[in-house]
């Protein structure tokens, strides 16, 4: 693997770096689920959109920069290097939109992609249900065909960005008689459709951006089904693989987090924490190299299912270990909670810690990643499918 960037790539990095440094927001944002926070995120993202940086990895015909995987990595590294805010439309920009590009009709692409690119619509992902998470194909939300519509009934849960989203890409069962992984369809719907109810969910660390979404006889045009009816499981693999793949500057974010913690450690260092910090440095460096290796293999068109799972597994482990170290260094101070506002969000440190634990669950839990590595990486027998 040749890790030398070309002159053109270096020039692109300098261009992105200069733009981000000049235009980056100066203040920390409120959470996106508050009116002030949402306005701050939208303002910042408006400048990204106007500069053509809304979805740099999208093809030019859909408003992106048409970057290859290395160009995307450079952009993501620069974005993460400044620890800039996560995108409120990332479910759509990273997963939903590219799935529509891969499987949607020309009408669907023309209708949905421009509004997604410029945040006119915020998208969320409606896959998980109360009894369908790791075993996603156990989903029970139904889509009954009636004339030109699908009539949805059921419930989705753990919907990130659900409280601010206006559209959802969802998996629904359109043929209950078919085998478990068949008879599922992938559909895009408006969340203001009559019969759709979004209920906010507040997490343990105070974050209230999650939602559960209920459908009661909600009529969604059949024209909103992406790909053939009953082929939703296959279509959803595009979205799920994108979720587990490389990118989003994760290795740079890990390095950033470790630097923050190392900075704290300078105040109060003992040999045990020095040793742990040294290990974390070794892990984050190895993680960065593994991210480069995966980018390299994928840009040569290789399929790397097990490697993507190894990265996802390591990412959550390193993230949690960094935040555990941070809590250990801060001791009791990390846990100070306001007695004036007991419902106020937890202090940032504690929030970061809990968020790192969530990384062991979303986009496939730690145990599921291990199963994938065992099957795809080691060639061990697949779990029997019910
Ligand atoms: C921060 C966050 C954001 C999320 N955002 C979204 C979203 O936007 N949209 C969406 O649809 N979903 C979202 N999810 C849901 C997420 O996809 C599920 O939580 C996840 O798939 C796990 O499903 P579950 O919670 O039902 O747990 P379960 O699948 O019930 O798992 C419970 C435990 O059993 C283990 N387990 C399950 N099956 C196996 C197996 N075969 N072998 C070994 N161990 C197993 C799991 O690893 C876990 O430890 C989000 C979750 C989190 C934490």
Automatic annotation (TrEMBL):
Cofactor: FAD
Span of domain Acyl-CoA dehydrogenase/oxidase N-terminal: 6-118
Residues annotated as domain Acyl-CoA oxidase/dehydrogenase middle: 124-217
InterPro entries found in the cross-reference section: Acyl-CoA_Oxase/DH_mid-dom, Acyl-CoA_Oxase/DH_mid-dom_sf, AcylCo_DH-like_C, AcylCo_DH/oxidase_C, AcylCoA_DH/ox_N, AcylCoA_DH/ox_N_sf, AcylCoA_DH/oxidase_NM_dom_sf, Mycobact_Acyl-CoA_DH
Keywords: FAD, Flavoprotein, Oxidoreductase
Segments forming domain Acyl-CoA dehydrogenase/oxidase C-terminal: 230-376
Family label: Belongs to the acyl-CoA dehydrogenase family.
PANTHER family: ACYL-COA DEHYDROGENASE, ACYL-COA DEHYDROGENASE FADE29
Designated name of the protein: Acyl-CoA dehydrogenase family protein
Protein species of origin: Microbacterium profundi
Lineage: Bacteria, Bacillati, Actinomycetota, Actinomycetes, Micrococcales
């Amino acid at each position: 693997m040749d890790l030398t960037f070309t002159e053109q790539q270096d020039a692109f990095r300098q261009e992105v770096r200069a733009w981000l440094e000049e235009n980056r927001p100066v203040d920390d944002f409120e959470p996106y689920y508050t009116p002030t926070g949402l306005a701050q995120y939208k303002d910042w993202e408006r400048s990204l959109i106007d500069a053509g940086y809304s979805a740099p990895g999208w093809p030019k015909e859909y408003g992106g920069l048409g970057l290859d995987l290395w160009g995307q990595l450079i952009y993501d590294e620069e974005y993460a290097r400044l620890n800039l805010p996560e995108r409120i439309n990332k479910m759509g920009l990273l997963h939903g939109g590219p799935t529509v590009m891969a499987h949607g009709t020309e009408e669907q692409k023309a209708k949905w992609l421009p509004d997604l690119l410029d945040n006119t619509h915020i998208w969320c992902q409606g896959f998980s249900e109360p009894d369908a998470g790791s075993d996603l194909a156990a989903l029970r939300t139904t889509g009954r065909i009636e004339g030109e519509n699908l009539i949805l009934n059921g419930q989705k849960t753990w919907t990130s960005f659900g409280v601010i989203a206006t559209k959802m890409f969802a998996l629904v069962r359109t043929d209950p008689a078919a085998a478990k992984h068949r008879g599922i369809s992938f559909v895009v719907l408006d969340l203001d459709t009559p019969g759709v109810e979004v209920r906010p969910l507040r997490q343990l660390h105070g974050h209230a951006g999650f939602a559960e979404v209920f459908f009661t006889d909600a009529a969604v045009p059949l024209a909103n089904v992406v790909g053939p009816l009953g082929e939703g499981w296959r279509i959803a693999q595009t979205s799920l693989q994108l979720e587990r793949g490389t990118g989003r500057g994760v290795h740079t974010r890990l390095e950033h987090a470790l630097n923050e913690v190392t900075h704290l450690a300078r105040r109060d260092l003992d040999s045990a924490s020095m040793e742990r910090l040294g290990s974390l440095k070794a892990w984050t460096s190895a993680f960065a190299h593994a991210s480069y290796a995966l980018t390299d293999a994928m840009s040569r068109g290789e399929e790397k299912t097990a490697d993507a799972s190894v990265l996802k597994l390591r990412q959550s482990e390193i993230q949690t270990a960094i935040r555990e170290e941070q809590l250990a260094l801060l001791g009791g101070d990390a846990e100070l909670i306001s007695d004036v506002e007991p419902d106020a969000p937890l202090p940032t440190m504690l929030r970061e810690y809990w968020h790192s634990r969530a990384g062991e669950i979303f986009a496939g839990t730690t145990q599921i990643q291990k199963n994938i590595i065992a099957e795809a990486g080691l060639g061990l027998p697949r779990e029997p499918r019910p």
